[in-house]
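tokens incoming
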């Protein structure tokens, strides 16, 4: 089987991705496993198997791009307004920016808000695989940047759940659960066989209203299971994550391309996002703008955090299986004056930065 972009998760006994490989004979109608052969995969009208649901999910959210229709959403910038819960109290946001890199399982959320009594709170929450920390300055303690960080080991799982239960994160982790090798950037139509409703750790069923319900494991969070309900347009409507006695519910609505007018690329994101933990609302966000054009998002782990957290779980190893330029891993972090550039305005100069490859456009199936 040919993979566009693979992440090998060496996470041992705590693995949540111990799924089986899709059959080598899996092929689309009129298309083989070779991403350069035949016509693109198109699900049959009314198909209810896992392959068709995962394909429709990614397709209708605008994640599949290029002539071989790979998942090209590698990073995400999201700005919003609304409220979050701080120390058990609602706090009205004046700034909220989430920068996510799905390739490195990392996210930085920078917010400022005011409570009802006028007290202002601000924080920068970061997670990178099994490390979590707070920064008082974006990129603090990295490449000479001033500022301090505080290791937050108890926040790792909550922050990873937030990534992998998000509108685009959920289909990525659902697809990952079908494979031994996590193929980041895969087309579901090329790696799952027709007809199956369960493959590995991922399954699909249909609720009484006729909506697809996809169940999958959350990467890097042992014992956490996500259940995603999709709407009539195969958009992520709700994701409920259970882990022991804790239930986190995410609801999403008002999808559209929230990118700036100069960069509309038909990647659709939720305009309203509500997060509840054991029934209590902890985040209620209204989207202002997104950037889904594969911007530069980095969250290197500060040395002080590495020394403060005893992480035994090995981080993913990135492997490029196709003959395409690999990402540069030795180039220094871009800088703005004396500080690293963490604004999200830099693009990787590799395959993921070219959405359409050698061209092509296809109408939405169905």
């Amino acid at each position: 089987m040919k993979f566009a972009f693979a992440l090998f998760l060496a996470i041992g006994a705590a693995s949540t991705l111990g799924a089986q490989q899709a059959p080598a004979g899996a092929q689309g109608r009129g298309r083989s496993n070779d991403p350069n052969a035949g016509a693109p995969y198109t699900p049959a009208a009314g198909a209810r198997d896992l392959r068709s649901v995962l394909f429709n999910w990614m397709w209708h959210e605008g994640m599949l791009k290029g002539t071989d229709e790979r998942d090209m959403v590698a990073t995400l910038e999201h700005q919003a307004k609304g409220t979050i819960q701080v120390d058990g109290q609602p706090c009205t946001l004046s700034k909220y920016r989430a920068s996510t890199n799905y390739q490195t399982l990392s996210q930085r959320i920078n917010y400022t808000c005011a409570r009802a009594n006028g007290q202002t709170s601000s924080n920068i929450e970061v997670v990178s695989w099994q490390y979590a920390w707070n920064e008082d300055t974006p990129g603090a303690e990295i490449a000479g940047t001033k500022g301090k960080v505080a290791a937050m080991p108890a926040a790792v799982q909550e922050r990873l759940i937030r990534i992998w239960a998000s509108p685009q994160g959920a289909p990525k982790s659902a697809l990952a659960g079908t494979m031994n090798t996590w193929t980041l950037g895969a087309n579901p139509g090329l790696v799952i066989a027709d007809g199956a409703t369960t493959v590995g750790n991922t399954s699909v069923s249909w609720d009484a209203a006729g909506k697809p319900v996809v169940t999958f494991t959350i990467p890097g969070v042992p014992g956490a299971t996500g259940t995603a309900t999709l709407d009539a347009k195969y958009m992520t409507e709700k994701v409920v994550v259970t882990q022991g006695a804790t239930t986190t519910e995410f609801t999403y609505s008002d999808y559209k391309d929230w990118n700036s007018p100069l960069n509309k690329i038909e990647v659709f994101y939720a305009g309203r996002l509500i997060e509840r933990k054991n029934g209590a609302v902890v985040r209620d966000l209204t989207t202002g703008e997104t950037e889904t054009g594969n911007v530069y998002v980095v969250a290197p782990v500060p040395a002080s955090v590495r020394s403060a957290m005893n992480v035994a779980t090995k981080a993913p190893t990135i492997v490029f299986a196709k003959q395409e330029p690999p990402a540069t891993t030795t180039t220094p972090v871009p800088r703005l004056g004396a500080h690293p550039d963490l604004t999200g305005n830099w693009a990787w100069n590799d395959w993921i930065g070219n959405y359409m490859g050698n061209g092509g456009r296809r109408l939405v199936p169905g």
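note: The two ends are 28 Å apart (CA to CA).
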